[in-house]
């Protein structure tokens, strides 16, 4: 990278969104802990630094602090929310607790721009030589600037999509203050990632963890270009896949793309391990461990040294970092056992968001139909069956999910939706069928819009389509007598139910 923005994460709920918005604006961003070593921050091609929001107060005795040298690196520094308050306190301004929190969309600045606020502390005195450039009714100093010191701060959150001019503010910081050309694109990363893989592996062999989704597919294509026939991909049919999925994976990727994929039938093995398990995190960790054990066994047959995974940035964030709470362990991150039995992991997509992976995939020549296939979780249908996983429950989800996918395709909504699936809720309710009382299961439908899976909005599917899907599920899937639609956004929910 010839241009790089470092984002120091103070634990704010929107920290990853800042990283995402910077990349959308055309600059490569790297999210690091607030107390990262200064050498790591400086790295190479450092062009600017952003300090995120966070739950702490600068007036607390144990407040979170970054290295003092951050302000001596000669690059512009932008503080957002807590980051602004931190700059104010660090340079002898004043911050106080508010009597009333400022939340939601408010008007700020001379031109009454709409901004998004969520804070309980405010800056009441700017540091010396700082110009106040915006204020709100509750925050007399909503933004300030010191061009000589190249220090800037905004109390609001420009990274939140609800702010119309938010991306423009971020772009102005990057282009006008940091002087960036804004020419970053994931499409330009392929050559560098291929070289990195070749360097990491040397003369070794790679075992590819292949799920059939876009992440593992793109990772496998990169690895194949890096090491050729020293890559062998293992597709674990764990019995938790959608209807016809295992056959489709082999046909698409093995036959059409020519990737060496070995199909391992582990259905009985996984279901045995999941017997009696109801807690979501326990499911994920069991599946993650069993994946690795299968790969280890296959690796011994193939003399593989490294394990290739399609881990992306969202997986890393949600599985918990030093400053971000664990939301749920992804089977390829938080679900990994400590002793994985390989020399190391190869994760070329670890710092990319989902839509960046898709763009990279297109640049590698992967057919659009495969690149834009909807995401499917590694633990598969196990986290779409609430409670204990059984073959009977899995079959209900497979059949209903297949109906949903058929109807979504017929309605021409494939590219409009980020993800759509059905969920076995485990709830039974009373119904009527053929003048007889029934007491059967309720299934939920989930369909969402998203760019990066960090935030999602429940999709407003046309009512006639929902009625048609519901009618087909109730008539074609046995032991289901009720269908509900999930309208929950993320946050507060997550995409999957478990």
Number of domains: 3
Helix content: 25-40%
The chain-level mean pLDDT equals 89
Largest sheet strand order: 2-1-3-4-9-8-7
CATH class of the largest domain: Alpha Beta
Query: Sheet with the most strands?
Result: 7 strands, mixed
Question: Which residues sit in consecutive blocks of at least 5 with pLDDT less than 50?
Answer: 324-336
Report the CATH superfamily of the largest domain: HUPs
DSSP strand tally? 18
Q: Termini, distance in Å?
A: 37 Å
Structural class, please? alpha/beta
Strand content: 15-25%
Look up the CATH topology of the largest domain. Rossmann fold
Given the C-alpha coordinates, what overall shape results?
A: globular
Assigned CATH architecture of the largest domain: 3-Layer(aba) Sandwich
Integer-rounded radius of gyration:
25 Å
Structure description:
There is one protein chain. The model is unreliable at 324-336 (pLDDT under 50). A 7-stranded mixed sheet has the order 2-1-3-4-9-8-7. Strands 12-11-10-13-14 form a 5-stranded parallel sheet, with helices on both faces. Strands 15, 16, 17 and 18 form a 4-stranded mixed sheet that branches. 32% of the residues lie in helices and 24% in strands. By secondary structure, it is of the alpha/beta class. A hairpin with a 2-residue loop joins β15 and β16. The chain folds into 3 domains: 4-184, Rossmann fold; 187-371, HUPs (Rossmann fold); 389-485, GMP Synthetase, Chain A, domain 3 (2-Layer Sandwich), CATH 3.30.300.
């Amino acid at each position: 990278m010839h241009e790089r923005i470092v984002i120091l994460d103070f634990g704010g709920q929107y920290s990853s969104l800042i990283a995402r918005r910077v990349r959308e604006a055309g600059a490569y961003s790297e999210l690091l802990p607030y107390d990262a070593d200064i050498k790591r921050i400086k790295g190479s091609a450092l062009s600017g630094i952003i300090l995120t929001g966070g739950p702490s107060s600068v007036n607390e005795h144990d407040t979170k602090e970054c290295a003092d040298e951050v302000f001596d690196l000669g690059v512009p520094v932008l503080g957002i929310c807590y980051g602004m308050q931190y700059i104010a306190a660090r340079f002898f301004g004043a911050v106080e607790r508010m009597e009333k929190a400022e939340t939601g969309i408010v008007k700020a600045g001379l031109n009454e721009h709409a901004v998004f606020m969520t804070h309980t502390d405010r800056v009441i005195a700017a540091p010396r030589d700082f110009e106040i450039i915006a204020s709100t009714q509750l925050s007399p100093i909503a933004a300030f600037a010191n061009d000589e010191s190249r220090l800037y701060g905004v109390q609001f959150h420009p990274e939140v999509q609800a702010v119309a001019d938010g991306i423009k503010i971020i772009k102005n910081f990057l282009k006008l203050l940091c002087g960036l050309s804004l020419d970053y694109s994931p499409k330009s990363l392929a050559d560098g990632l291929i070289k990195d893989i070749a360097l990491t592996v040397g003369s070794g062999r790679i075992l590819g963890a292949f799920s059939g989704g876009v992440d593992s597919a793109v990772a496998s294509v990169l690895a194949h270009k890096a090491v050729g026939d020293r890559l062998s991909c293992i597709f674990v049919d764990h019995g938790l896949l959608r209807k016809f999925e295992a056959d489709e994976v082999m046909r698409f990727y093995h036959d059409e793309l020519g990737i060496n994929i070995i199909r391992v039938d582990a259905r009985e093995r996984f279901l045995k391990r999941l017997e009696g398990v109801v807690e979501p995190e326990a499911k994920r960790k069991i599946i993650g461990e069993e994946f690795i054990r299968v790969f280890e066994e296959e690796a011994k047959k193939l003399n593989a040294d490294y394990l290739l995974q399609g881990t992306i940035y969202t997986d890393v964030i949600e599985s918990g970092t030093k400053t971000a709470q664990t939301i749920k362990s992804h089977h390829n991150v938080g679900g990994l056992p400590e002793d994985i039995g390989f020399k190391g992991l190869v994760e070329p997509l670890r710092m990319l968001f989902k839509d960046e992976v898709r763009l990279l995939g297109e640049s590698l020549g992967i057919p659009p139909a495969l690149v834009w296939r909807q995401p499917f979780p590694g633990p598969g249908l196990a986290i779409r069956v609430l409670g204990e996983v059984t073959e009977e429950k899995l079959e209900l989800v497979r059949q209903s999910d297949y109906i949903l996918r058929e109807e979504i395709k017929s309605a021409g909504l494939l590219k409009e939706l980020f993800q759509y699936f059905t969920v076995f809720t485990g709830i039974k309710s009373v119904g009527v069928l053929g003048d007889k009382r029934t007491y059967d299961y309720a299934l939920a439908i989930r369909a969402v819009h998203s760019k990066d899976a960090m935030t999602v909005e429940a999709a407003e599917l046309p009512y006639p389509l929902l009625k048609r899907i519901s009618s087909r599920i109730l008539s074609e899937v046995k032991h289901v007598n009720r269908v509900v639609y999930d309208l929950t956004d993320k946050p507060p929910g997550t995409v999957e139910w478990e």
